[in-house]
Amino acid sequence: MSLKAISATDAASLDKDLMEIGGWSLDQLMELAGLSVSQAVWKIHPPNAGKNILVVCGPGNNGGDGLVAARHLAHYGYTPSVYYPKQGKNELYQRLRIQLETLSVPFIDDFQSALKTTDFLVDAIFGFSFGGALRDPFGEIVRQIESANVQVLSVDAPSSWDIQGGPPKEGPGAKFMPHALISLSAPKPCVAFYRGRHFIGGRFLTKDITDKYGLDLPKYQGIDQVLEIGVDAEGRL
Ligand SMILES: NC(=O)C1=CN([C@@H]2O[C@H](COP(=O)(O)OP(=O)(O)OC[C@H]3O[C@@H](n4cnc5c(N)ncnc54)[C@H](O)[C@@H]3O)[C@@H](O)[C@H]2O)[C@H](O)CC1
Ligand SMILES: [K+]
Question: What is the domain-level CATH number for residue 210?
């Protein structure tokens, strides 16, 4: 199955359209994005493969998707924990955090130790608004993830990758190739550099909006919020 990619600028504009024209709130979009991330985790790493899931969340909405996913994973019977080194100011993130704390999902400080004991990692650090060189503390965090012996699912883009141009040429992230990637709404151009399992999620697009941005409407099956799509040997979708 092939799906067209969307640039970072169009992805931001598409979200704006959904909220300003389509009647959506950010909470709703993030809830469906995070729900699809949790379903992708289930498909890749079902609970009988190990229940300890470490969700690493960044300061923006990509991190918000991770917080939502962690909540769903707790309800599915996993034992998620969250590493959230730089919480964003938006009150939405504070509410998502409270929801996790009331479920007794731990927010951990010792990332290095958590990496050694986790069964699976969700990279919800940066999505389509990432740009430039990694600023502290994220350079070291990405370096630890890429050298850890654990399967990773990246949310929307492998964190540290340029959304257009793919992995950095050197430094943290240069060797980062997650086991799986879930693109939200539509793949981002950096997927051309990606080799691994590839999912699409964010089941809320309408034909009007896919036509406006020249995208394909994924053919989700039944009640699934996530669909696995392929990437060929040359990185084409
Ligand atoms: N339509 C959908 O599918 C939806 C997707 N969602 C998710 O939202 C992100 C995009 O969120 P946004 O808040 O715009 O940005 P990010 O989370 O990618 O990052 C912003 C955050 O990162 C900081 N930052 C940027 N570059 C750097 C750097 N080089 N070093 C350190 N820090 C950096 C920046 O300052 C901000 O704090 C999308 O990918 C989806 O995952 C939504 O949930 C809604 C619907
Ligand atoms: K990410």
Answer: 3.40.50.10260
